[in-house]
Amino acid sequence: MHQSAFIYHRPPASLLYAQIWPRNRPFCGASAELRELHMGRCLHAVVIKFGFGFNNVIISALIDMYGRNNEPGDSLKLFDEMLEPDFICWTSVISALTRSDLYAEALQLFYFMHRHNGFSPDGYTFGSVLTALGNLGRLKQGKELHAKAITSGFCKDNIFVESSLVDMYAKCGLVDESRSVFDQMEEKNSVSWCALLGGYCQKGAFETVVRLFRKMEVDLYSFGTVLRACAGLSVVKLGKEVHCQYLKRGGWNDVVVESALVYLYAKCGSVDFAYRIFKKMPIRNSITWNSMISGFAQNGRGEEAVRIFNEMIQEGVKPNYISFIGVLFACSHNGLVDEGRKYFISMSMDYGIKAGIEHHSCMVDLLGRAGEIEEAEDLIKNSQFSNDSSLWAALLGACTTSTNTTVAERIAKKMMELRPDYHLSYVLLANVYRAVGRWNDAQKIWNRMQKKGVTKTPGRSWIENNSSSSVSFLVNSNIPGEMYNDEKTHSFN
């Protein structure tokens, strides 16, 4: 038993409750805050030994301790053993489940508490349940609980409830509502700031994230979000500045922030630097592994991406939907046909993951690059995405290197049937004709395209200059060689 537990062994039980009980809950709370699970278990043993196992206040503190240490099973077991749990115990177990990402279970307990036990939620209960609703994307119920919090008087000057509302609306995609709640808050903390930043980042408003980050009192928890925004903007220089700020403020060994750093550097092409951070991380989550796999894959280092994927499995980390996109992309861009086929089958057979449109797209690209056009065509026809024009476009793109114009025509006609106004159907078929010297047929396709009024989508590129600005350009596809600025400049100075 932990040494700190022995301080409770000397006094008789009756004297113990009278003299040292006021310190019981602080000790349990300290174990929770410090994430000292072993010490918390020792204190739990002391509680049972001296007969305090029926004290609701102590048990609620133990429930909270197990919840903060990601042991929801122990929290539930303690709660289930209580004869008459009071409101504090209900709130503690709901919070414990929410902290452990068991959002549906937390909601189930909340509704049972409210309907069958007659307890009315307080600010902490509202906050925990709003967090659960936000993570489940249940906007309607979130709005209902918001109204309940207003009528109960918990929405004014209650930073816990207000921050949870900012988070709930942000995660449900209503960033304007989230910002409205945020602006009405008289006091803002790191939770409310990070929730708002996360909402804008999820929406893709990366520039807004950067602007808000410069205004806020920076908290270590906010660095992960702003680094994702830098990755979204592909501005590695700004990302390095944020990285330096993180280190200067004493940040270290935070799996969320370091995973965001791996994603940033890998996405911006600094894959070796991303790998250095990856190797030094003591703890890696699925986001870390997926970022590294995709980073190698997108930078032309497919064999290394496959190696990282296999290492992930060897270390007991179960690959998910995104993991297989990364490894299949690596296979498709490095000619690893047999490996690609193996991973595509393993995804459903070994891990129960249903192949999505992205996985099929990678496989079509892989088989098309290898010249297996008809196998790729059969894959599309036998999938649930048989009428998805993007897959047929990828396959037709592969036909540009093939001399089998019969297959190319068949695929192009299928695309035109699915999307008559889809310009790639005409452009890629014309390219196929030109590749085999059928110039007249290619011209007919262009004439048909113009007659139907089908135009090519203008291209867009981003340039990062020395002043840390990103400039967007458009390429006019209808006028060869012409490029013009779209008069949109994004500065982060």
Automatic annotation (TrEMBL):
This is Pentatricopeptide repeat-containing At1g03540. The keyword Repeat applies. Keywords: Repeat. GO terms for molecular function: RNA binding. It comes from the Eukaryota. PPR repeats lie at residues 86-121, 158-192, 285-319. The lineage of its organism: Eukaryota, Viridiplantae, Streptophyta, Embryophyta, Tracheophyta. The keyword Repeat applies. GO terms for biological process: RNA modification. It holds the Pfam family E_motif. SUPFAM superfamilies: TPR-like. PROSITE patterns: PPR (PS51375).
